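pinned: reference chain
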Amino acid sequence: MKRILDWFVQSFWFLFVLFLPITSFPLISKLLGNTSVALLSFVFLAFLTIFWLLPKIIRIKSIPYHSIPLIIFFLFSILSILLSAFLPVPSLKKTSHWTGSLEGFLTLGIGLCSYLLISYFIDSFEKLKKFIRVINLTGILILAYSFLQAGFWFITDDYPGLLRQFQGVISSSQMLYKARVTGFAFEPSWLAHQLNMLYLPIWLGLSVKNDSAHDWRLGKFSLENILAILCFSVLILSFSRIGWLSFIAVLAYLLLRGMNRYLNVLISKIEQKQISKHKKTKRTFLYILFWAIFIVILFGILIGAGMIFYRMDWRMEELFNLALIRDDGILGWAREMIFAERLVYWIAGFRVFLKYPFFGVGLGNSGYFFPETFNAFSYQLVEVTKILIHESFIPNAKNLWIRILAETGIIGFSFFASWIYIHWKSARYLEFKKSNFLSSIGLVGQLFLIALFFEGFSIDSFALPYYWISMGLIAAVFRLQYFQELEIEKKNAISNCKIENEL
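pinned: its structure tokens
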């Protein structure tokens, strides 16, 4: 019986990772009430949680150190839901706010289970490498399908019927976008999100550290090198503006690290040749010059990206129209770039937080307050009025950080931010280990978190598992390293005791 269960666990683990690219499987979407976030992987996550994760937690009677702030956040979210019973939650679309609370609770539970599953399951370096290999396999499928979409569009200016039918099978949106690739995702921005939050950091981190989860190489190029280059192309073809911005932030961080390393070498060489009274002056001058050059380069990258968007994306035609900003303000300028809707949701969500700053309004409830917190400009936007009048769903903040502030207050946000900070410190710690593979995972973790900060301004769902998996990966590798060091210390202690007894 145990062998059969182990076989199912291993098989379902593989399928859980393999089907991560499919973000909105139609059958799962219908079962969950026509929700857009409906990963096929949820089926395998549910099995693994019930038959493997929960029994393991009960058996070992402990939880990962890294998960403590997250579990506190989860419990605090339940408290915020209970406290919302004492708030004057407005009625909207004849739906009870408890429906939104239940959805928020379930999606956060999905995220928590995804995180804990990765944290516990990767319990050896061999499993870590196997996980990255499966990620690489799914990444190859994403890139191949995305290039297939791009090829048909740019060659024929349309998609064949067979491709549209296939998209209808794997995605509840059933849509292929003009001149934009979606991969297996619900929409192009979700494709960019999954690439930035899982695949690209792994491929970039391993490439920068010149490491790989595979022995195979094409000349001097590892598989991760090739995938990183191809992934950059697909990210461009998605035309996701927040996806581009997240990637630019990751590149800026890598650039900053590279320049800082070169600066330290330069300072070290200069200080060896200079007399002591000039060292401090030269060091200060070099640091000032370093930051000036970095800011100029970063500004150039942003301008260059803006120019590319300006020429390739019709939504960005008014990007450099300063007169429009002067005459119509930021919101008017954003409206011309089809971005104002996001801003008004952010503003509305932040106003909810200002009204209830400590405990928030309860998980999943912020949208019920939006008709009260929308500014006057909001009602000039077709999307806002359509959502309030015609659509059946409740509006949301479309911003992870503002959502957490609005729904759990500054207290809940502090726990969530602490959880992220612990993983940042752990990733930095891993990077300075002697093992190059561990160092690579440390850099991968930092790239995850840089991307998460920016992606959080576009995605507010707890159910998209990519950042949960990324955080779980950091926690799992840290635990592996910790137990490895503990084992070495025990062996050294035993060895020392033997030597003392012999003496």
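why pinned: The chain has 18 helices and two strands. The chain has a mean pLDDT of 87.
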